[in-house]
Structure of Cell division ATP-binding protein FtsE:
Amino acid sequence: MIEMVGVSKVYPGGSVALQDISVKIEKGEFVFLVGPTGAGKSTFIKLLFREELPTRGQIFFNGKNITRLRPNEVPYLRRRLGVVFQDFRLLPQKTVYENVAFAMEVVEASPREIKKRVPKVLEMVGLSHKLNARPHELSGGEQQRVALARALVNNPDVIIADEPTGNLDPDTSWEIMKLLNEINKKGTTLIVATHAKEVVDVMRKRVLQLENGRLVRDEERGVYSCEI
């Protein structure tokens, strides 16, 4: 489903974020991306949804080389990807319902589709009772659930989560990770960048470990440990 072939990313000024990454992620996998701050995790994720382009190498999504997409093709790629950020990135003036609906409006879904789909997804993440609340009225965990609902609402092939529990307490973090695991069980591919050692150690999913921009470990049913 996703394949990187010889991917490197060097930023202006010579800062090397990724070096010669080759990896394949199959449909339906749950993958943790781990490594210390500055290891290249965020760059790895930005390359997947074409926020950045690699300096060298190729990236394939469902067999299509996304490094060669024309600008007008990029939105079609992003419809197949749901992205969840550490800082939620909700629109403060909009309600929970409106925040999730906005993701469908962007891809020009019909009002009928939006009215049908948004309540279902909010029910899935346990927020049916909060659809008229605004972000400032929600806890951090509830805000992250809204962000997750927004990522899910267009029924993506892949969910990419960048430190989704980074701003949450341990109990709430586990709730979010259980939700992600349930989503994965229904067939959605999950790629989760995280520093949450306990979560990775308990869940025992595939682990990709980055160090100084290099992929130093690719382990099935792996643990967090960054010791080489």
About this structure: The mean pLDDT is 94.
